[in-house]
Amino acid sequence: MVDATLIEDVLSDTNLPVSKGSPTPGYTFQDALRATDISVNPIGVFFRLLRILFHLAIFALWWLLHQVTHTDKEERQRANADKFKDMINQLSGVLIKVGQQLSQRPDLISPAYCDALANFLEEVDDEIPPEDIEAAIKRQTGKSVDEAFARFDWDAVGKASVACVYKAVLHSGDEVAVKIRRPRIEKLFAADLQAINWTLHLIEFLTIWRPGMTKNFRLELRALLTEELDFKKEARYQELFRRYHNRRKKWKVTAPRIYYKYSGREVMVSEYIHGIRVSQIIKALDEGNELFLAELRDLGIEPKTIAKRLVRSRYYSFHECPLFHGDPHPANILIQPNNRIIMIDFGACGVFSQRDRNLMWQLNQYYANEDVANMVNMVIGIMEPVDPVRGIHQFKKDLIDAWWTGFYGIKSNHAAWWERSSFWLWLRFFQLIRKHQVPIPRNVVRMIRATLLYDTVAARLNPKINVFKEFQKYSRGVARRTRRDIEKCAIRQMLLGPDDVNFLKAQQVADVSNGLLFRLQRFLDDPGFNFMSIAGKVYSAVRALVRAFLLAGAGAAVTAITVAVLYATGVVRSNAPMNPFRSDGSYTAVQMLILVLFLLVAGLLVVYGRRVYLRFGDVDD
């Protein structure tokens, strides 16, 4: 592998010109060559781990104390949930990301904990100090805040675990959102990841979990969090998502425009979006807030329509886009009048290979056709290569049984919202993964995570939604678009003649045809594929083997006759002991004959086996 430092030295010697109009002055070609791994002090990681364990121990004692002193169960759960949220907020770092995900998992924790942790979806308490904001913008743009922006609001409009978002106005008059990464967050995340890594390695070493079981989880968690720290990647993901979804204007799903001139690794400037968070809509639906729902209707916002568009947008992202939003929780979805959907926070995105796209398409087709067994086959296909773990067949059988049970809830008209989505199916999938200790690839984890969030949000907006019927509608739309494209192409070819591209494809087809004809000619002309000679070789092999067995049988018969004659003439007494050796260590006459027979048969088999081998190696004219 070539060292990046060596490449930098070579490039610096070549005096490569640098564009003065670079859209990202805070990120250079040399920066791209440098390693992105963050080194952490093992001693610091150890103390960070001790701090986490200490706070967990304090919370455990608090929980035990409240079990004794509080008799009201709901009050006790609310108090414990608030204490748990405060603990995570104090520890910060990766644990806040964990809290955000737990808030969407009522299957793992009680509703009281979900409600308390849901605050992390909206914002985190701490703000970035003004001097750190000034320094970050200076590093990115080369200008101060006042020079880069016509107006900058120092009060954050959004506070998350990784960054804070500020409202500003460019000198062009555009209203923008300025996302600034928290200072020293990279070191904190790296320490937390190393602490988690050590803990999981210890669990595997003690064989509490099968060795290698957590490898994909650790890689996925590291990739997820490091991507969220790099705003340059996020800007590109957001740009691609916006470009591809703008092609399907009917769905009204898009993302904010990026201002690359001001964006880099730790600062991202994008279009400022005025809208209503889906989390607010869900809260109004759960509480039955008719006043708020009436205001939504006045704006032309219909929760059921939003749910359907979100599900179809997921299918479009999975099957037709180069990436999909990997973290579509309710706080990352904004709604504007007339059901226009704006997706934000593209720090975590996933991609599919063409093979995975085809398997996902078949999986959804089997969903729609109620073919659970083939649904499971497609999921295992996406998971490949699957490690040869014990019980993979039992895992498949248990998953089929579990998914049939979940499928009954999806088909029922009286099931709860979480039973009418794919939520139950993937929940049972993860439970069986843990039970059978089957490792799964990172892309599968991201796909399932995104599917769970999309379907969960859609089901909470519209409890009667059937995600599989929505796939049927989406697939019919894909079929119509494909037919239209083919018809337009055919009409254009008939009226204007073939395009230059078609001539190129025709040449490629001709080249492939010539190659196939050449291979066919070699196949027919090659003596190695002469069927008459192959039949002759098979006949020769059978004849040789038969001859070998006949000769061996003849030898056995001669030996038996010889032994009988020896017994009849008294040379060998019938009561002679059949020990392998006499007392003096010599062989008996009968045993000598049997040994000679064995050597003869073995020799015949070796000789005739070699004759068969050599015969098949002959090249016949």
Structural descriptors:
single chain, about 625 residues, alpha+beta, about 65% helix, disordered N terminus
Q: Please count the beta strands (DSSP E, at least 2 residues each).
A: 11
Q: Which strand-content bin applies to the residues?
A: 5-15%
Helix content: 55-70%
Average pLDDT reading: 78
Short structural summary:
With 621 residues, this protein is α+β, with helices and mostly antiparallel strands. The protein is built from 24 helices and eleven strands. Strands 1, 2, 3, 4 and 6 form a five-stranded antiparallel beta sheet that branches.
Characterize the structure shown:
The chain has 621 residues and is of the alpha+beta class. The chain has 24 helices and 11 strands. It has helices at 4-13, 29-33, 42-69, 73-91, 94-102, 111-117, 119-122, 130-141, 145-148, 185-205, 215-229, 231-245, 278-287, 290-298, 303-320, 354-368, 372-383, 392-411, 423-436, 442-461, 467-496, 500-525, 531-569, 589-617; strands spanning 151-152, 158-159, 163-169, 175-181, 253-254, 267-271, 276-277, 324-325, 333-336, 340-343, 349-350. The strands form 3 sheets. Strands 1, 2, 3, 4 and 6 form a 5-stranded antiparallel β-sheet that branches. Helix 11 crosses helix 20 (442-461). The longest helix is centred in the last third of the chain and has 39 residues, at 531-569. It is extended, with a radius of gyration of 36 Å. Residues 1-30 and 576-587 have low confidence and may be disordered.
